[in-house]
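Open question from group meeting: does this chain pack into something compact, or does most of it stay loose? Before anyone orders reagents, we agreed to write out a predicted structure and look at it together. Recording both the input and the output here so the notebook holds the full record.
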Amino acid sequence: MTRHEFLVHAWEMLIGRDHGPMTFRLILQPLTALILAIRAGLRDARQGCPPCFFWSVFAHARGSELLRKTWKDVHNVFIVAIVLDTIYEWIVYRWVYPGQALIVATVLAIVPYVLMHGPITCLARYFVRSAKNSNGKPT
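Structure tokens returned:
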């Protein structure tokens, strides 16, 4: 098998996961990551953390701390995503492809969290600020 054929086969296996057994995980895992992002965004807004989460990881002096906090928030969802994809691979392909399980787990658990955390923090900061203003407290 040539490298091109291998990559085409791997790609077909990755996109083929949208049907067959255990398709519920394609909705449940991003939804769980979204719920965790909402929870973390609200927490960060109350603590006054920077709203641009993704950029802050790289530009902020506390970037490694933000990465640790992110991992703490999503590690269980990520591990469950790996386990479920491994079970899926075993059922469908009768073999386990660890690299594909990592890719799928990242796409289903970490990407939604990272994409939504920043906007949710921005929205939450706006509402926290509005609540402080309506209570007569300075911002």
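Observations to bring back to the group:
The helical segments are 3-15, 25-47, 53-59, 63-93, 98-134.
The chain has a mean pLDDT of 83.
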